[in-house]
Design a protein that fits this description.
This protein is mainly α. The chain is 79% helix and 0% strand. The protein has one domain. The relative contact order is 0.23.
Length: 250
Amino acid sequence: MAHLLIVLLAGLVSGALNSVGGGGSFIAFPVLVAAGLAPVTANAATTVALLPGAFASLWVYRRELQPLAGTSTRSLTVTSVVGGGLGAVLLLALPSDSFDRLVPWLLAFATLVLVFGRRIASLLKTGVLSQPTILGGQFVLALYGGYFGGAVGILMVAFWSIGLGLDPAAGNPPRVAQLAAIYCAAAAIFLLASDVADRPLMLASLVVGAVVGGFGGAVVARRLPPSVLRALVLTLAIAMTAVYFVKAAG
């Protein structure tokens, strides 16, 4: 019961963080690994559990969704679904040892995105890129999101800021929508082809927490200073990255 309560709280915080600005994977993934799941299974379970939370956040943002300049919402969503599905296939098809070795570096990459993503986006703003370029970039991000997903929402907002000149605040509703599309495709594959459902109580606890956190986080997002949540996510990201590098070295 203690483990399930911790997982429930991890889902709550993860869903809330994803609804506001991203970084929920930094909470859910290491908690599931600490609870005894293999890294690949924990990564798949994180994606499956955060999907309902993403839809809960999307419901709150539904009236604020606007097409991105230079491409249609349908094209972007189809690209996210295809990329997310292929990323999930890669996770399951490649040897699990390769994912274990990549985890510290994936966490480090995602942490660097957290630290420098917005700054780089503000420095490299360009005009509106062509639709094939936007869709190509979105496919790569969705592929990464289906395979691992850490900070993929932040990567999307940074990419849109650079390529479309989109304000990060205005990018939050479409970020949640595309995150849901990526998670939807990847979660379907994980549920069909992995052992993610072998721990139903743990998965259910994470799902319930993520739904409540996703809905509640989106509701209060406009009232809380983004800098506070960003600082929390960054602190956890740095700590988790350090822990995994120490484990890899040992």
